[in-house]
Design a protein that fits this description.
7-stranded mixed beta sheet, alpha/beta, 11 helices, phosphate:acyl-[acyl carrier protein] acyltransferase activity (chains A, B), Isopropylmalate Dehydrogenase, 16% strand, EC 2.3.1.274 (chains A, B), 2 domains, 334 residues, Phosphate acyltransferase (chains A, B), Phospholipid_synth_PlsX-like (chains A, B), homodimer, 46% helix
Chain lengths: 334, 334
């Protein structure tokens, strides 16, 4: 636990609803987090118009460039030196801020995390970890890595599992989190060489390893932490999001275009549909965390509204309060 | 195109609804397929009770064992020599039947396909290929491999793409099918070494290669054939099925447990929900085909009803009519 002021660097220009949604989120969060400092990086004129004057909790750092979603990540990080994201990352690197939040280009943010803020000594590869919903409760589960790495080695996955389990315990308050390995079958000898090796390493670790988990079990709540290689994790995360989106789209379409009877039905079924939507609402878990770098880096969805950004700010405050980075540094520099 | 009689070997004991659903499906299909012969392998007494006597299109082959879902695949194939699945596979191998259908243990069926029926000469590795639904039409798309191989090499994926594209064209009547590679980004240089190599090989092939596809785009109908390594494909297929199942479960739950208002809403919204369910009904596409073995081997879901089995029978008839195996043999033995 740390007591001093927490300074959160926020890329105010990333995402579809920037900077309005981001400013609104900060204004909502700051009252609840009186010991936090919010440093907003972005277009000075736009930010000044949205923010109250002389708020002691809020600082604006004027930047002149924005990294776009279509920009090539590493190239953008290197060439757009005065972009809101890169300047914010540099503030974190220089110790002028303690954590970084962005809704912008995921690849560029990963690059800023890995190349500017830097890997924790002893961590082989940082991994990206969102919190996903489960069917029967609001607990959710963590899955790591979902795409920071195209190629993975056994030792990476074990470190990801350790960091994610620690996160689940400290930030999500899950006691003795159940850790599972995403694999193509339940038995210990399933998978390719990578996953067979990881199974053994996790089995021999101090983690509460519960064995393999298969794709269809992910949302059932069978595990609190799922570890996977970055290639498979990326495909699985996007497939889950894509499937949920297609089904909800079809459902809305069917309800709206099937005449008066269906429209009436939809009105009446509204509460039930809301329950489903709320279970699949991942905004409440905050954003995806890049674990294994020297300061917390959180990526929230580009289409996030103020509410989603607010949860990401609260999430970062909790990560800083529990001082995860110091724990990781102590663990991996051994 | 082939003209002679088509003899379909059917494992009548596999799946939750065996043998009743399987017999019902055969009885429905046989009238529409007068030149097909159905050879049912299973418990003689049970089958005789369900089947009409002396039907010239139907033959029963008595077997005494059944491979269970919990059996270890290769071991079961080797030890349960008188099981409905193994005897049926041997009939195909010996030329007494032209194709194999089972609802049983997937791993065991893959083993029967690969080790008993055998690889086509020149095919490096057979791949398992289901047809999945797309959002905006009833066309669906094929995805290969979804789990016959835990480890994949570039040349496997290219052969799978070639076989799947041929299937899409001949069996699903898709003209010049669009072939895409499941990857972790849109650009040509995305992915690990395997997927980068496959991208180049597909680009240089005669296939209508449209580039990379990401997990969230799979159900959008952007591609007719998606090629992927067997490990990722397995995780993605199961994730899609799991997500759809969880959402539909939550929805039904919400509609039934939210009181009278929701129940009334559900009744009225029924047609709309049916539209969604029908779009996600994969039974109409038949089962998953093991491509690259010497005769068509089709796996239909273990929980299939008679209607799903009926579609798998029709699918096999079409595969035999279009003589896919001869085309593959000619192509890969070059």
């Amino acid at each position: 636990m740390r007591q001093e002021m927490k300074r959160i660097a926020i890329d105010a220009m990333g995402g579809e609803n920037a900077p309005k949604a981001i400013v609104d989120a900060v204004l909502k969060a700051k009252a609840e987090l009186p010991e936090d400092q919010f440093i907003l990086f972005g277009d000075e004129a736009q930010l000044k118009e949205l923010l109250p004057q002389d708020d002691p909790q809020i600082e604006i750092v004027a930047t002149t460039e924005v990294i776009l979603d279509e920009d090539e990540p590493v190239k953008a990080m290197r060439s757009k030196k005065n972009s809101s994201m890169v300047v914010a990352a540099n503030w974190v690197k220089e110790g002028k801020a303690d954590a970084l939040l962005s809704l912008g280009n995921t690849g560029a943010l990963l690059s800023c995390g890995i190349f500017i803020i830097g890997r924790i000594k002893g961590v082989a590869r940082p991994g990206l970890m969102p919190t996903m919903p489960v069917q029967s409760s609001d607990d959710g589960f963590n899955i790591i890595d979902v795409g920071a790495n195209a190629t993975s080695k056994p030792e990476y996955l074990v470190q990801w599992a350790e960091m994610a389990a620690y996160y689940a315990e400290k930030v999500r308050n899950v006691r003795n989190p159940r850790v599972a390995l995403l694999n193509n079958g339940a038995e210990y000898d399933k998978g390719d060489d990578l996953h067979k090796a990881v199974y053994q390493l996790l089995k021999d670790s101090k983690l509460n390893f519960t064995g393999n988990i298969e794709g269809h079990e992910l949302l059932t709540g069978k595990a609190d932490v799922v570890v996977t290689d970055g290639f498979t994790g990326n495909a699985v995360l996007k497939s889950i999001e894509g499937t949920a989106s297609v089904i909800i789209h079809l459902l809305k379409d069917g309800l709206l275009n099937n005449g008066v009877k269906a429209k009436l039905g939809a009105l009446l079924a509204k509460d039930a549909l809301k329950t489903v939507a709320s279970r699949f609402d991942t905004a409440k878990y905050g954003g995806a965390v890049l674990l294994g770098v020297n300061s917390p880096v959180v990526k929230q969805h580009g289409r996030s509204d103020a509410r989603a950004v607010y949860y990401a700010v609260k999430q970062i405050d909790k990560i800083l309060t529990e001082d995860l980075i110091s724990a990781f540094k102590a663990e991996f520099s051994k």
